[in-house]
Amino acid sequence: MMKWLKGDKNEDTDDFANVSASLKRLYKQRLRPLEESYKFSDFHSPPMDDADFDSKPMILLIGQYSTGKTSFIRYLLERDFPGMRIGPEPTTDCFIAVMAGDKDPATGVINEGVIPGNALVVDKTKPFKTLSSFGNNFLSRFQCSSMNHQVLQSISIIDTPGILSGAKQRVNRGYQFSKVLTWFAERVDRIVLLFDAHKLDISDEFHEALDAVKSYESKIRVVLNKCDQVNTQQLMRVYGALMWSLGKVITTPEVVRVYLGSFWDQPLRFDENRVLFEDERNDLFSDIQSLPRNAALRKLNDLIKRARLAKVHAYIISHLHDSMPSVFGKDKAKNNMIKDLDKIFADLSNKHKISLGDFPKVKDMQEKLKMADFSKFRSLSSSMIQKVDDMISNDIAELMVAIQRDEAKATDLINREGPAVKGGIFDNWSSPPGPGGVFNDGGVNPFSNKWGEGVMEGMDYGTGTEGTSWIVDEKKSEYDEIFYKLHPVNGKINGSEAKREMIKSKLPNTALAKVWRLADNDQDGALTDEEFALAMHLINLRAEGHGLPDKLPKHLIPPTQRDDEDEEGGVDGAVLGESAD
After folding, report:
1. Which pTM does this prediction carry?
2. Residue 316 confidence (pLDDT)
3. Which of 45, 105, 340, 496 shows a CA-CA span of 20 to 30 A to 164?
């Protein structure tokens, strides 16, 4: 075990706690001394606390008023949260952190209610301490809604004030709104930008908000909400208009991921795109489900980015210090260096072999240097730089091994016990414990995710009072006609005969090889009429874009090859290994 994890003798300790503790020690012993020596917090981010490493994954919701941000949270939780207000106008005028409540040590009851901002920033268990720097005007509009909710045991959600448009956007909020967004964007795991299908204009304030978070483009996802309010033709045009608008603001080569849907529990106005909305919702929920599993990796990645920026900052500050005259002309020298800061950045980039992309924005740095006291700067400490280099090249490389091990354990736990984020809408979306939507009592939920799709179609055949017991029987007469034209011998066709028919599907050989392996259930190198019909059924599924499992589900086993155990089991876990080979 790596040296940062040594000393933990309790083998039952949660692995994420080990990784989190290691990150805290790395930051405090290697990186923070460098930040303090070169006034990093005066120019960039405040120092990190233990709560920044221990916090649950957070989702930040940003959007103009009435785009459905608060409704989206209610949709996920399936209940109101303390302090919630929903309306067509800017009803949410606060930053609201929706989080799991703390357990009362005396009663053991989880507290629910609203915690005001001034009290929240002094709570050492919450990652909001440094928000106090934005002043009372902001803190009076910041609160925490604590709840006893299963979803919030895995993630926290940050609701933001509706971004104003028109004449309203000229109203002064009383605090630096865009800088608050940047503070949250740096610390959250996912940034969700919500748009209304009827409100695609990007106001000046919304433009500033996007500028504040666009440097964290890897965290950004876009939700085009209320899509059921337009028909298919209108939706196509709305989607194109949204991508055009985003392209002018988020100027990255990659296309930002946009999820289409209607994220509330009301009937769809136009339901012609119902299947599309379901697929988009599934993709978004899968992305949310990945957050707890990737939380440690995200924190590690953010720590590396912070370390690289701190190193660059130390080079800048030390260079400015060393370039200052000893006695006379200090003000003139300061002004000249601030003016020529872009040239200084280029020289430092060449000298230390650092990409210019790792340097802060010249304009922002110039503004902050004008207010700085250069006499408090210091020369470069090679030992501090070396400690940070060792942390990046050695300690973090070793920590990656621990994180990968933890991710493997988390994946195994998900396969055994279900999704990482449970409760609320996710109990309705995800399958309950047991494969394919099968409950512990053997009942089936036909509305669970992926139920009845692809290879799962027909999984409940034979469980009712009517109907066939094998989905393939629906087209078996059609398949039998093809089968008997291939001149079976002793009721079977060999591989050569089957191949001539199967390659007509134009599927690649790798896909057909998997079809053969699944269809030849008795593994005798030939296909019976049932096995051939099964092969044709699987080919059709694959041609329609569905994945095939690594093992044949019990409900697809030919009836004459089933034993009593297969008949009783109904479905097995094979479909969980579904792939697109």
Report:
1. 0.77
2. 95
3. 45
